[in-house]
Amino acid sequence: MSMNNSSNVFLDATPSHPNRFQVNVINESHESSTAADGNHDPPHYEETSFVDEAQKRLRISFRLGNQELYDNFHQNGETDKTDAGFHAYDSHTNTYYLQTFGHNTMDAVPKIDYYRNTGSISGAKMNRPSLYDIHEQLAKNVAVTSGSTDRVANGDGMTGEEQTENKEEDPNAGTVKFGWVKGVLVRCMLNIWGVMLFIRLSWIVGEAGIGLGVIIIGLSVVVTTLTGISMSAICTNGVVRGGGAYYLISRSLGPEFGGSIGLIFAFANAVAVAMYVVGFAETVVDLLAESNSMMVDKTNDIRIIGSITVVILLGISVAGMEWEAKAQVILLVILLIAIANFFIGTVIPSNHEKKSKGFFNYQASIFAENFGPNFTEGEGFFSVFAIFFPAATGILAGANISGDLEDPQDAIPRGTMLAILITTVAYIGVAVCVGASVVRDATGNVNDTIISGMSCNGSAACGLGYDFSRCLNQRCSYGLMNNFQVMSMVSGFGPLITAGIFSATLSSALASLVSAPKVFQALCKDNIYKALQFFAKGYGKNNEPLRGYILTFIIAIAFILIAELNTIAPIISNFFLASYALINFSCFHASYAKSPGWRPAYGIYNMWVSLFGAILCCGVMFVINWWAAVITYVIEFFLYIYVTYKKPDVNWGSSTQALSYVSALDNALELTTVEDHVKNFRPQCIVLTGGPMTRPALLDITHAFTKNSGLCICCEVYVGPRKECVKEMNSSMAKKQAWLLKNKIKAFYTAVAADCFRDGVRSLLQASGLGRMKPNTMVIGFKKNWRKAPSAEIENYVGIIHDAFDFEIGVVIVRISQGFDISQVLQVQDELEKLEQERLALEATIKNNESEEGSKGIRGLFKKAGKLNIIKQVPKKDSGINTIQSMHVGEFNQRLVEASTQFKKKQGKGTIDVWWLFDDGGLTLLIPYILTLRKKWKDCKLRIYVGGKINRIEEEKIAMASLLSKFRIKFADIHIIGDINIKPNKESWKFFEEMIEPYCLHESCKDLTTAEKLKRETPWKITDSELEAFKEKSYRQVRLNELLQEHSRAANLIVLSLPVARKATISDILYMAWLEILTKNLPPVLLVRGNHKNVLTFYS
Known about the structure:
about 1100 residues; mainly alpha; Rossmann fold; disordered N terminus; transmembrane
């Protein structure tokens, strides 16, 4: 069978084997057109078909030439709807062909609405059928109607009434959205073309020369271009919302970086408003000074004009983005005219006055003279670069209003990169033109011409008939080095350059005035800084941040009134550079993390180039001003630490998360290559807590010796019908892991569904963990109700201990007097919380209806309450808390609640008594030692109890002290117990016999036939032969309890060697009786048994 991969054919016109996975539609003309197509048929694959021969002609054959037919059938990714009748297996009605792939199924076809976020402003999120919906057996009583079928097929299960009820207005209706030209290109060009173009570029060329001047411009452009490329990659890796640089950085690197840079970036934009306005005010004041029209003095005039200007700009901004955009276009037109005016002026023949000021039109001699540098005292390449670089900034002007763009993913890369190109050409063009036509120094005196026979210093001006040699000895007022108004002099019409200066300053101020509130609003909406939530509110159809505008206005006015921005200006430039650095680093970090979610549509980027851009930005920060760079880093570091400490409840899928995963995976894989060593042993526990909140004390004591040192996995086994168990397990996984995080417990949660408890635990013991991070210790609570429990439960409980030993996993059994399970208390609390919420909701509803009329009011109340599900029947519970609604909090089992928190409290001065009776590898000793390192247990001393011979107590005490010192384990005392193996007193033994009496078979008192019958019927009971065979061991457990009562009654915690029951030899009931009598009436007890492999060593 050959395969035809022609792109012109998607489906065969007449397949020999009909395919049920086709969308069939009646279209005779289409079939005839495809039949006439001369293309070769694609291959046919044999498969079972449920379509009869009459339906072979009914299908869509999608070819490149038939796009119109396809578009007519599918509009906006949705199938056309019909009101025709429908039957589940009716293949002749139109609705049949509207189902997914042409047959009755709930499976949904791919659709963008399934991938939207909840609350998306670009469209409503739809929910596709869950795996449960399409995997489980379909209910027999489901009736399929024509009106609902296509909604189900497309994942929208709402009825028509619900759709009407939930229908919302289009959030984008009436909003003003900008394209890439007006929204990005215009703004970036205006922001990049600043005052520097008109009043500083000529000075830079005079100092650095044309060659180094172009290099300075090029180096600045390299920084902005690399940042633009990185920003373009980030912007095209998903939908971009409002917030500009803050949004890009926070969604890439997470809230810690985004929150820190977002705040200082918004502040920098607010202060930049003041900087640009003061630049405008200074130009106006200079014009007033020339005409002797000063109002007060220079400083106060700047304050007055600056304040008035900011008020006017604020009015334009508050009027709406549409008005602001129109103002920007007008300002750009003025700016372009001013630049064109300069270039025209360079070709207009110079007059005597302009020549005396150094302008001679284009001259090769001037170009050659000005090509090299001529730095004055105190200036150098980097100082000149530091002065020029702020002129190249402004590339984020378009990104900062990303929320107001029609298509930010397309507009930001296209507009920003084109703006960088255009402005770079303009800067280089102006630099070359001014360098080729104006000399460095000129006197401005029209009489400084060269007379015949007069000696000349050989300068370019000298060759052109002017003698400016006195500028070598004294400072002149004109030329590239001395006159900041060179462009105005060169231009064809000087006032247009002044208008260009006004346009550049006002447009930059206006852009910053809009950017700061937009970025600040996005930051506040994310609620990273809770105190700033007030500024998140937006107004009007464009969600304008009016509160942010007012705050920006206040900040701008404050800095305008200072009227001295030379100190703050370097810090602002560094704030912008810090943003650029993080944008570049975001692109690098996202690429380095290798997340499958990093798929930018803008492919012209490289991770290492982005990293170079980030390093370059950091270097430029120090070149511009080292102390401002240090201040920037200190502020950013402080905000980073603050946000990290607060841990905002957000999850943006940042590259930091992706890199954490990659690092964890790499470390886990690397760990598998390293053999285990006894020095690195740590308890890695699997804790059978059930839901972690139901047995908090069991989790707390385990967490005490695993926190920051070992693995802790809380496990739950769901027993019952698999379908219900799996559904409940899947729905509660995230909730229970979240509970661990909320309570700052460093543990994992996992669960399994099984037919019985033991099978589930067995699965957990075998499959839990990853590589070397696998559990080596199982922690369980003592089964307090074993005497009332069915024999199967006891068999399962003892069985999991046997299973753990089979898998060479240590066992820790924890017993406290009140037990661990507080699930009943939690049920009561949950019910009371629900009732309290319903009561508050009902009170709120009553309060809202107080103003309504009597008859209408009471009916409306119950109607509304019913709608809100406030009035409802509380179902009866079978758990013995049927009257839970009337219970009071004080009726809880307070002792149980207090016992569940006992390990959360500081233990105070006391002892941990370690009864190390059997050598299990050292786990019985290691766990209490780790506990003494914890803050809550550090005041407790270790007392060691070991068994020994009564005639060798001192020798064995010395030997044990020597062993502990070699293990470097501090202890308060060592006790050698020499009377462990004597018989217990009669009262204790009698209590033990009475305890096991109901479970004894007493077969020796019965005839052989009856005894055999009883063994078959109750195999779990203790036989007389078993009791006699293990009488000495039973004596030992009872005797140990007496010794524990005598020596450790006042201990904070007892750690005791766990007796091991030999499989198929000791019955489960007898073993439980041993554990019961061993730990009865004692403080909290840990019964510990390691896997008999060394966990302690005295070797270095």
